[in-house]
């Protein structure tokens, strides 16, 4: 109780220096109390006492913080009681944050104690706490003190024998790098960071992955690209699932550190809004990009290829965790589509692929070396394996290869004869040649050897089943070597369909764009694109796709709109994800992505996804609804016009109790008004606002009243539209048989006056007559609302209370009626205008004209 009453005692003895100093002396004596709870409570009161002393420094003979308070805090940093130490550390941070103690005092009194606690001979708990406190103090004491005092000891503790200390160092590594700056980070801290990333304890490596983005921000672009990128890939391929999980969660943030506004043409303004750096300059850049794309189309497809908008495909990369093992899998259709094709319906799948391959060869003779170097997966691949559990599923037949040579019919008959098959009468040369082509893919080098179960080595490739990623075992660690060639982020095409040669040419163009991008290290991009792989959800984290969706705008911003094809199919896969949380994440960020990719790509690639979200669950629809106006503002006018008819669809929800959804719709209606003409607003927006104005929930109604007020302001210049709207308001509210509707009309009239949606003259002509009729309504609640409008708005207007008002006599009559109303609440609200001088104009005698 004594510790708790110290602050109150200071306030009671305020006035003399001696008495105030005596209270602080008593506080110093209480600091010697042997009971830990007393010391803990004293530390909890220290920040409040320090604040009082700072505000009333004239009551003390010397600086209380330096003389009395700080020595107690420093003493408790080495207390034997753990709770006392924790409380003193928190109190020290508060004192620094509130600037109640000087940095010089911290350097002289606090820093030596922290350095002593961080020595190797110190207790393990003390060293761990000293590292944490050192890292928290660094931003508060500044760069100079941190470099001179804390940095050498922090770097030493990064290699401490106790893994708890190393883990705390790794967890706070980013904060320390941010404070000391780029030079000290690269010269002193980065070598220690490399050591921590290869620590034997997975918890230390996990902490490194979590702070990787902060470390990257403190380094130069060259170091980030040449050193940190490979280091991060090692964390992504870590043997510990928890490390991989944290690495994939931080992957998008790390990629965003490669962003360059001069490349993307975008930057964040002071409000944190993403805007274009120079619209005119950016438009010229976009035109140049389009010219490059057209040239690539002509080169890749001979002028016959379709546009990327018609056949979106996924770029495939050849970078893997192990650069020595590069395997690119074909695009395989969904396994369930195997039963939909019939051999009697036309040429076989193999013949179709061979024929299509010849067409592509003839159409791209000039570009043959490029296509061969890319080693693109077959666009027209269909499911051709009936049973994935059969031994044939594991052959190299599932990889791209040259088409089989055509054999004469008699040779085919001879090879398929059962009698010869049983007797072993196959011609040896032809069988060897056929077997060699069936079991050897062009993607495999001549040095690769086929491993069997009996001779599995440390480099064995796993996961060559249809639909799986390619893994390899290295020194007992399973690693993903498939890169972006994984089928996980490639959405399956329609069942039984055969891709056209034009789509293959588009794929070549987009893969060329993938190879041309040099903004992000290819290995990082490959791992990011593989985050939608179903195998990742099994081996890393079930919600890894959600983290991928969360960081997608940052990755798109880093790549820029020119390299959007690298992310196009990934975005489509995430938009079709089975987890609604993934789609919800995309829905909340689609407006930001639209700013990044621009108007053309938005209309071509994002609008279909946006339309799909409109028909999704309410948890997903709320994401597009919250930023509906922002997204529609980025669309072309002709596309934006199509969404007017879809506004009414937001009125339908899965749960009618979800009133916040309708409230958000009402808010968006108000923002949408400047995007459409007055005619469109009157035809499509007004009916939705009318319905929301009659909602069961008051919050929705009030928001809808604001929307109707804004609508009336937007159509006020058109007499015909305004008259039509007023007529509907009269029919639906003022003249309605339900009293609650008539009460809503009074609320709406108040909102219109507050927002000044109509001029006083127009208001007196259009709405005031209907409002005055309600002063005699039989329902007291309606008369209360009318009295509120009178007292708070109408009687404040010079024009409405003057004789120029054509309904001046009716207004006077209504005021007389409300002033003498039989209901007490009605009289109370109307009387507010008489008691508040701000309610009526100072030169108005209108109140005096009302009979008593």
UniProtKB/TrEMBL annotation:
Residue stretches of biased makeup (Basic and acidic residues): 349-361
Alphabetical list of InterPro entries matching this protein: ARM-like (IPR011989), ARM-type_fold (IPR016024), HEAT_type_2 (IPR021133), PP2A_Regulatory_Subunit_A (IPR051023)
Keyword Repeat: yes
Top-rank taxon: Eukaryota
Biased composition (Low complexity): 305-317
Key words, A-Z: Repeat
One GO molecular-function entry: protein phosphatase regulator activity
HEAT repeats: 110-148, 685-719
PANTHER family with a match to the protein in the record: SERINE/THREONINE-PROTEIN PHOSPHATASE PP2A 65 KDA REGULATORY SUBUNIT, SERINE_THREONINE-PROTEIN PHOSPHATASE 4 REGULATORY SUBUNIT 1
Protein name (Swiss-Prot/TrEMBL): Uncharacterized protein
Organism: Capitella teleta (Polychaete worm)
């Amino acid at each position: 109780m004594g510790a708790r009453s110290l602050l109150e005692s200071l306030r009671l003895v305020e006035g003399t220096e001696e008495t105030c100093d005596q209270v602080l002396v008593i506080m110093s004596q209480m600091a010697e109390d042997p009971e830990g709870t007393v010391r803990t409570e004293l530390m909890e009161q220290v920040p409040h006492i320090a604040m009082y002393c700072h505000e009333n420094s004239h009551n003390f003979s010397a600086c209380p913080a330096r003389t009395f308070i700080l020595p107690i805090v420093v003493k408790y940093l080495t207390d034997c009681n753990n709770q006392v130490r924790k409380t003193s550390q928190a109190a020290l941070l508060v004192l620094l944050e509130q600037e109640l103690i000087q940095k010089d005092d911290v350097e002289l009194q606090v820093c030596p104690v922290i350095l002593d606690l961080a020595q190797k001979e110190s207790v393990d708990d003390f060293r761990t706490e000293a590292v944490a406190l050192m890292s928290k103090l660094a931003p508060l004491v500044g760069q100079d003190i941190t470099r001179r005092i804390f940095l050498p000891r922090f770097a030493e503790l990064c290699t401490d024998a106790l893994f708890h200390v190393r883990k705390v160092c790794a967890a706070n590594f980013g904060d320390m790098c941010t404070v000391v700056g780029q030079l000290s980070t690269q010269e002193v801290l980065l070598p220690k960071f490399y050591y921590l990333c290869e620590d034997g304890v997975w918890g230390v490596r996990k902490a490194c992955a979590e702070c990787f983005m902060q470390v990257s921000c403190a380094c130069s672009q060259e170091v980030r690209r040449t050193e940190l990128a490979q280091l991060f890939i090692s964390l992504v391929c870590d043997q510990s699932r928890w490390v991989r999980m944290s690495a994939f969660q931080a992957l998008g943030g790390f990629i965003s550190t490669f962003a360059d506004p001069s490349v993307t043409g975008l930057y964040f303004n002071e409000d944190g809004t993403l805007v274009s750096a120079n619209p005119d300059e950016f438009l010229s850049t976009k035109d140049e990009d389009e010219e490059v794309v057209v040239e690539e189309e002509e080169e890749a497809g001979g002028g016959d290829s379709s546009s990327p908008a018609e056949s979106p495909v996924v770029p495939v990369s050849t970078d893997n965790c192990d650069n020595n093992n590069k395997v690119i899998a074909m695009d395989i259709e969904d396994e369930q589509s195997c039963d939909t094709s019939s051999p009697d319906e036309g040429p076989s799948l193999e013949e179709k692929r061979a024929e299509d391959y010849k067409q592509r060869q003839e159409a791209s003779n000039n570009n043959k070396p490029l296509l061969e170097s890319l080693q693109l997966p077959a666009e027209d691949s269909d499911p051709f394996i009936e049973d994935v559990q059969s031994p044939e599923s594991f052959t190299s037949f599932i990889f791209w290869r040259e088409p089989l040579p055509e054999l004469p019919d008699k040779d085919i008959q001879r090879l398929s004869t059962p009698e010869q098959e049983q007797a072993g009468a196959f011609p040896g040369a032809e069988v060897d040649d056929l077997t060699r082509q069936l079991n050897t893919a062009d993607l495999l080098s001549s040095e690769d050897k086929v491993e069997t179960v009996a001779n599995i080595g440390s480099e064995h490739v796993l996961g060559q089943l249809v639909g799986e990623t390619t893994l390899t075992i290295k020194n007992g660690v399973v690693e993903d070597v498939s890169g972006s060639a994984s089928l996980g982020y490639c959405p399956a095409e329609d069942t039984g369909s055969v891709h056209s040669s034009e789509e293959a040419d588009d794929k070549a163009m987009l893969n060329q764009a993938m190879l041309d991008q040099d903004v992000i290290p290819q290995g990082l991009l490959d791992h990011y694109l593989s985050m939608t792989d179903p195998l990742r959800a099994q081996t890393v984290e079930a919600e890894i796709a959600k983290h991928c969706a969360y960081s997608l705008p940052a990755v798109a911003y880093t790549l820029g709109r020119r390299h959007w094809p690298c992310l196009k199919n990934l975005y489509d896969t995430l938009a079709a994800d089975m987890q609604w949380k993934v789609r919800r994440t995309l829905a909340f960020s689609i407006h930001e992505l639209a700013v990044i990719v621009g108007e053309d790509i938005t209309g071509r690639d994002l609008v279909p996804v946006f339309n799909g979200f409109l028909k999704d669950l309410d948890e997903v629809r709320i994401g597009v609804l919250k930023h509906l106006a922002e997204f529609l503002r980025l669309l072309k006018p002709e596309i934006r016009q199509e969404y007017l008819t879809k506004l009414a669809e937001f009125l339908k929800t899965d749960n009618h109790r979800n009133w916040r959804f309708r409230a958000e719709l009402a808010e968006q209606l108000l923002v949408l008004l400047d995007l459409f003409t007055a005619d469109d607003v009157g035809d499509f927006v007004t009916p939705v606002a009318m319905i929301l104005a009659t909602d069961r929930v008051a919050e929705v109604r009030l928001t809808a009243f604001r929307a109707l007020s804004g609508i009336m302001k937007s159509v006020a210049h058109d007499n015909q539209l305004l008259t039509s709207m007023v007529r509907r308001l009269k029919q639906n509210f003022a003249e309605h048989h339900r009293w609650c509707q008539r009460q809503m009309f009074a609320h709406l009239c108040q909102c219109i006056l507050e927002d000044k949606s109509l001029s006083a003259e127009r208001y007196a002509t259009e709405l005031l007559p209907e409002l005055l009729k309600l002063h005699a309504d039989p329902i007291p609640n309606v008369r209360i609302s009318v009295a509120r409008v009178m007292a708070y708005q109408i009687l404040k207007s010079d024009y409405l209370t003057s004789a120029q008002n054509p309904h001046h006599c009716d207004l006077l009559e209504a005021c007389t009626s409300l002033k003498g109303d039989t209901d007490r609440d009605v009289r109370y609200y109307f009387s507010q205008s008489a008691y508040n001088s701000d309610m009526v104009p100072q030169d108005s005698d209108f109140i005096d004209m009302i009979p008593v």
